[in-house]
From TrEMBL:
This is Pyridine nucleotide-disulfide oxidoreductase. The keyword Flavoprotein applies. It comes from the Bacteria. Pfam families: Pyr_redox_2 (PF07992). One of its GO terms (molecular function) is quinone binding. Its cofactor is FAD. The keyword Transit peptide applies. InterPro entries: FAD/NAD-bd_sf, FAD/NAD-binding_dom, Sulphide_quinone_reductase. GO terms for biological process: sulfide oxidation, using sulfide:quinone oxidoreductase. Keywords: FAD, Flavoprotein, Oxidoreductase, Quinone, Transit peptide. Residues 21-133 form the FAD/NAD(P)-binding domain.
Length: 433
């Protein structure tokens, strides 16, 4: 996980130069999948994955950790056990990208030259953009499932809540898993109703700078009904800007229809779950690979081939890429085969024929036995389903899918580059009429 570092440190002196045919920056969901797929096609490839972390997290499991269904250790494996065997793992942090010289620089001063580069270091959590948040996190009622450090604290807060104001916020930037800020809220609401019985004396409130619950209208309308049934108060056009931990107040900018700030409002909290602002990691923002004129700094790639728009030997996928779809592991799963096939085509001087179609999925947990399996075409904003079932519905079977099948699929199939299971059900899949 990347957390922003506001001050830039000086670059280290180069102590060693290495060379690999393919360098993959980031060994998360996207990086491991892509390496596995490349090697399935050609086991002789010389691939290096550069990633400093010795742990690999199944981040979708953090929602379940915050909801008391998983322990944090259920969401983590040793990175060493997941990196494909014939791959070189360089356990180091990339700090500079130099695509003009086909080289990257790491924190310990290693220069890694490459012929092909795949950039997938995930997203950066910009906690510092909310004043008072870094100091407030992890104590006195302030938490976030966006970090392994605090997801267990979310459950501690929910479980022990005695009533009052329970606030859940969505930031004013693109984020990974756009549903996560509200999934935790429905689990909290369920717990307050059925387990702890404090719902009668609790205000559950959702704050978002947006004007709808979800990007796809069909899912958004269904969530509106969920919100109404549960008597959750929704405050649109509210952007969390500061936390006053000493008085337990959350300060919001209030936007008008055109996104101008028109007021500042303050709400007291007893429990505050924050989804932080997010952007591409700083070393991408500060590199020639970044999308020009964007404050977020995503890697500027073609939305179909996933090839960089200016550097032909560079590809990107996953949360760090500029792909205009919802940032999820499910999306990365459909992107990885495209990158693998197109990199191999480029090596063979063939045209890049494989295209990504914008597929993504955000299983929206709406309670302890209900989930909306929100699959959709992120380029058109329309629902999709890998199953012979209408996806625009809360279902028990999808809760089982989310809590048991998907984690297994992640560790045992996705990371190993196995084909997408939904493809086997194609002839009987639900289709929007
Ligand atoms: C609370 C939560 C709930 C979620 N729920 C879902 C869900 O239900 N369904 C779903 O599909 N997705 C979900 N996601 C999103 C999903 O986890 C991400 O979209 C997915 O992990 C993206 O894969 P990635 O490889 O791009 O990034 P990551 O998996 O984050 O991996 C990035 C890797 O890059 C490494 N790295 C970082 N910086 C550097 C550097 N400077 N140099 C080298 N390596 C670096 C990191 O150590 C990490 O291993 C959720 C995420 C969260 C936080």
């Amino acid at each position: 996980m990347v957390t922003s570092t506001p001050q830039q440190s000086p670059l280290p002196a180069i102590s060693k130069t290495l060379h690999h045919q393919i360098a993959i920056v980031g060994g998360g969901a996207a990086g491991i999948m892509t390496a596995s797929l490349l090697l399935k096609n050609n086991s002789a490839l010389d691939i290096a994955i550069i990633d400093p972390s010795d742990k690999h997290y199944y981040q979708p499991g953090w929602t379940l950790t915050g909801g008391g269904v998983f322990q944090l250790q259920d969401t983590v494996r040793n990175q060493r056990d997941l990196i494909p065997q014939s791959t070189t793992w360089i356990q180091d942090r990339v700090i500079q990208l130099d695509p003009d010289n086909q080289a990257i620089l790491t924190q310990t001063g290693h220069k890694i030259e490459y012929e092909y580069l795949i950039v997938c270091p995930g997203i950066q959590l910009d906690w510092h953009l909310i004043q008072g948040l870094p100091e407030a996190l992890g104590k006195n009622g302030v938490t976030s499932n966006y970090s392994a450090d605090y997801a267990p604290y979310t459950w501690e807060l929910i479980r022990n809540f005695q009533g009052g104001n329970a606030l859940f916020t969505f930031p004013n930037t693109p984020i990974k898993c756009g549903g996560a800020p509200q999934k935790v809220m429905y689990m909290a609401d369920d717990t307050f109703r059925s387990k702890s019985g404090v719902r009668q004396r609790t205000n559950v409130q959702f704050f978002s700078p947006l004007t709808q619950m979800f990007a796809v209208p069909e899912y958004s309308a269904l969530l509106d009904r969920v919100i109404e049934e549960r008597e959750i108060e929704v405050k649109f056009r509210h952007n969390l800007k500061a936390i006053k931990a000493e008085t337990q107040e959350a300060l919001f900018d209030l936007y008008d229809d055109r996104g101008n700030i028109v007021d500042e409002v303050s709400y007291p909290y007893d429990l505050l779950h924050v989804a932080p602002p997010q952007s591409a990691p700083d070393f991408i923002k500060n590199s020639p690979l970044a999308l020009p004129h964007s404050p977020y700094g995503w890697v500027d790639v073609d939305r179909y081939t996933l090839q960089h728009n200016r550097y032909r030997n560079v590809f990107s996928l996953g949360d760090a890429s500029s792909l205009p779809t919802s940032k999820t592991a499910a999306a990365a799963r459909k992107q990885a085969p495209v990158v693998a096939e197109n990199v191999l085509a480029l090596i063979d001087s063939k045209p890049l024929l494989r295209h990504y179609d914008g597929y993504t999925c955000c299983p929206l947990i709406t309670g302890y036995d209900k989930t909306i399996m929100a699959e959709f075409d992120g380029y058109r904003g329309t629902p999709l389903s890998s199953f012979p079932l209408n996806p625009v519905k809360e279902r028990w079977i999808m809760w089982k899918m989310k809590t048991t099948v998907l984690p297994w699929v992640y560790w045992h199939r996705m990371l190993k580059g196995e084909p997408f299971e939904g493809d086997y059900l194609k002839p009987i899949q639900w289709k929007k009429r």
